[in-house]
Amino acid sequence: MEMRIETAAMDALMVRLFDTIDEANMAWVIGADQALRNAFGPALIDLVPSYTTLLVHYDCQQLNHAGALTLINQALSGLKPVDTQAGELHDIPVWYDESVGPELPLVSKRAGLSVDELIEQHCNHDYCVFALGFAPGYGFMGLVDEALTTPRLKTPRRKVAAGSVGIADRQTAIYPLLSPGGWNILGRTNVPLFEHAKRGEPLFRPGDKVRFRAISREEFEADGGDTTPMEERP
C-alpha cells in the first residue's frame, strides 16, 4: 500500500490507499476511517470511505490545507488493518424471478449456467459493502463470482423498482427507491434500505457484509413484497 493525498476541493482532500478494487482493502479503509475521524474531531464535516479511497471534507475555518495534510499524515502513520468481522452481516431475502428480474436469462446464459445455478451462485457469498452512493442507502457490493460478470445495460432503464437486486461487472447492489438504472436486474427484495434509518442513517455501512437468500413468491408476498412486473425493458 502506497498512500497518496490529492486535493479534491478547497476544503477536501482525497486519500488514495489502493489502485485496484479488492475485498481485502476494506480492513485498511475502515481502519483509516476510524483514525481520521479521531484525528479531525469537530473539524471534520464529512468522511466518505470507498473502494480504494477516503474523501476528507474538513472545516476550513478551523483548519487550513497544510493543517489538514499534517493531520492525515499523522493519523495514518503506521496504519494497520482492522478486524472486518466487526461489520454487521445482513441477511437479505430475494425473490428471483424473470418478471421482476428480467436479466436472469441474460446473465445465466453469459455465465453458462441454468437460472437456478445462477441464483445459487449469487447467494453463495458474503458480499462486502465497499461504498454508499448514487441514492440514499445504495450500497456498492462485491465481488461477485467472475463467471457472473456482466456489463451494464447499453441503454439504462428510466425506472427501476425499489428493492431491485442487480449486477454490473463484478458488483452487486439493491436499488433503495424507484430510480433510473443500468444494472442487470435479477430479482427483488422487500427489505427497506433507508426507511430503516428513521434516524437518517442507511441500513448498510462500508465494511458490512450482505448475504442474499432466495425465497419463493409466496414468502415475498407474505412479507408485503411488491410483485408488479418490471415493465420497461432496455
From TrEMBL:
It comes from the Bacteria. Keywords: ATP-binding, Hydrolase, Nucleotide-binding. Its EC number is 3.5.2.9. One of its GO terms (molecular function) is 5-oxoprolinase (ATP-hydrolyzing) activity. InterPro entries: CT_C_D, Cyclophilin-like_dom_sf, PxpB. SUPFAM superfamilies: Cyclophilin-like, PH0987 N-terminal domain-like. Residues 3-206 form the Carboxyltransferase domain. The keyword Nucleotide-binding applies. The keyword DNA damage does not apply. PANTHER family: 5-OXOPROLINASE SUBUNIT B (PTHR34698). This is 5-oxoprolinase subunit PxpB. It comes from Vreelandella sedimenti. The gene is pxpB.
